[in-house]
From TrEMBL:
Organism: Actinomadura fulvescens
Lineage per the UniProt record: Bacteria, Bacillati, Actinomycetota, Actinomycetes, Streptosporangiales
InterPro entries xrefs: Amino_oxidase (IPR002937), FAD/NAD-bd_sf (IPR036188), Flavin_amine_oxidase (IPR001613), Flavin_MAO (IPR050703), TAT_signal (IPR006311)
Domain Amine oxidase: 15-455
PROSITE patterns recorded: TAT (PS51318)
The name this protein goes by in its record: FAD-dependent oxidoreductase
Domain of life: Bacteria
Amino acid sequence: AAAVSADVVIVGAGLAGLTAARDLVAAGRSVIVLEARERPGGRVYGLPLGDGTTSEGGAEFIGPTQDRIAALTKEMGVETFPTYNTGKNVYYRNGRRSLYATDGILGAVPPDWGVVDLQLALLSLGNMAKEVPVGEPWKAPKAEEWDSQTFHTWSRSHSLSNGARFLMDAFISSTLSVRSRDVSLLYVLNYVASAGNETSPGNVDRLINTRNGAQETRFAGGPEQVPIRLAARLGDRVRYNAPVRRIASTSAGAAVTADGITVTAKRVIVAMSPAVASKIDFTPALPASRLQLMQRYPMGSIAKFVGVYETPFWRAEGLTGQAIADSGVIDVTFDNSPPDGSRGILMGFINQSNIRRLDAAPPEEVKAAALDSFGRLFGDKARSPSLTAMQRWDNETWSGGGPVGVAAPGVLTDFGAALRAPCGLVHWAGTETSGHWTGYMDGAVRSGERVAKEVGTAL
Ligand SMILES: Cc1cc2nc3c(=O)[nH]c(=O)nc-3n(C[C@H](O)[C@H](O)[C@H](O)COP(=O)(O)OP(=O)(O)OC[C@H]3O[C@@H](n4cnc5c(N)ncnc54)[C@H](O)[C@@H]3O)c2cc1C
């Protein structure tokens, strides 16, 4: 095995690790990045369609106030374009398909019965989120109370109609890909609070909307162009196929052992979700707070399915390509066509419950179920794409699910501070550690910038 030494060794070449490497190199430090996969980007991935092109298989969109990923995108010379959003959205509920406009005051929320209840509940959610210090939800005055219940418990304490209940759960599954009973109310409040920047406080609308929200903008050539170009700039500082197995710290420094290479360094940055970091063997053992946090911060479950068509035919029918459904394996869709619309690509999310049910199903079975969903939502033409592809994040060893790690009741108040607190020579990054836009690419970049400063000061 090769033996290398550097000032800092970074574990993980996702956006967080690569950003930290960029900043440390700029500060004159020597850096080695060890990446388990054969590619950079982690949860940002160009899914091969089988004809030499790709579609967004993981992260896809950015939106207003996501300033740090926007700046990095510009720095890497990657172009962006607006998500296709002209026309009506499809709402499929109780076996009925209806169409709705999204330019009214409800934005992306379908006008179901009970939408007034829903708006009142969302309003109260927004007001509670204003009391949450971004990135430090455990310091909210009512942290104990809010972290003692799931989002499900809280939402049911409002006299919500069936439609409003469905949409409340859809809000959680479409943003976190967990069920609303899986996640603490405090976690959700922090997620809302984090959907902003230093000058514009977070709010629910910015999380869920396409126009003026987190789904507003896409990347020409896919967002993976950003980590690919950043990794290329870092050159042979980034080592692939190097899963880190062990991190040992002594008074002399740290030794990080990966398959095929050992790196000794003054400081270590672990840049990944807490659940994935828990696979690494740490010597001496991590403090209990951190070890236990890593046992309590599971990933959501999610897959993305795409179908390729000669044209984006739904556009000609006055549809955005966006849908919300209460049945079928696909519950949310988007138009993933290239910027010039030269062909049509429809993308469907397969949420936590649906992908879990299909856990052992062969790909053909998932494909048939997904095409059935597309057909119900967008008509028979949607049943016969020329190409299809699927990315099942739950099957990815080095992600363990997606899009983000979540916390059940009690975790943030009792263990949250361990998300970012350095442990000896080991520092933590990854979108889960971010204040603003935790869970998003922007949060990953922010965490990389924060940890580079932290380590720079410590060196
Ligand atoms: C389906 C899906 C849709 C999403 N949609 C969006 C979206 O539209 N917009 C948005 O902003 N965000 C979206 N996200 C979230 C976004 O992808 C993440 O927030 C972000 O990419 C996380 O970056 P990271 O660097 O923190 O972690 P990761 O990308 O997970 O990077 C961690 C890296 O560490 C590597 N690694 C893990 N273990 C080891 C080890 N032991 N040794 C060496 N390397 C290791 C992994 O291979 C990976 O490369 C989505 C995610 C998914 C899955």
